[in-house]
Amino acid sequence: MNSAFVSSPTSEDRGMDGKPGRWTHSLPSPEDMAGAGYRFEGNQKVGGDIVVCDFCTMQAWAWERKDDPFAQHMESKSCEYVDSEMFRELHDKFLQKQGKNKKLDDMMLTPPATPTKKSYKPRRKLRFSPIITMYQSMPTEEADPETANSKKPVEIAVSAGQTRVVIQITDGGERGKLSVPTPTLSFLP
């Protein structure tokens, strides 16, 4: 323990068994509590962290990490210790220590820098794939003779995405015989 803390009139009190009481919190520290003018009561039955000021008999309990014992004690309007020079000096030291702790906490909470995005590759150019004949059919003799002899062009439509390709084949000869067809290729959006 700090010698100033032990010799201070606000140091920890002894427990019921005669042994020194133990402050159960790391923050605020026992030194900060003593500097704020509090003496540790150590009543384990009620809460375990009860403190009292010997000047104004103010009591406080249920301490949390974020609590400021000096600000709590300044709420007491009639305390001689709060008006003293010693209280102001210790309060300034406490605030400086809190500022350093907050800077470290802020640095620890700062996320790492976001890496820059890689440049994107341009989209691949679309190309027509080769057409492979998988099955070739010829009309049989049982087919309707009117359909076989009609002069209407045969259309083959191929769609890919938003592009549609229509191939029209006009045949001047009989169906089933190889002749030189006249294909017409058109692109429709």
UniProtKB/TrEMBL annotation:
Chain segments carrying region Disordered: 1-32
InterPro entries: BIR_rpt
Recorded superkingdom: Eukaryota
Comp. bias regions, Basic and acidic residues: 11-20
Gene3D superfamilies according to UniProt: Inhibitor Of Apoptosis Protein (2mihbC-IAP-1), Chain A
Bilayer-crossing regions: none
Start-end of Polar residues biased regions: 1-10
UniProt name for this protein: Uncharacterized protein
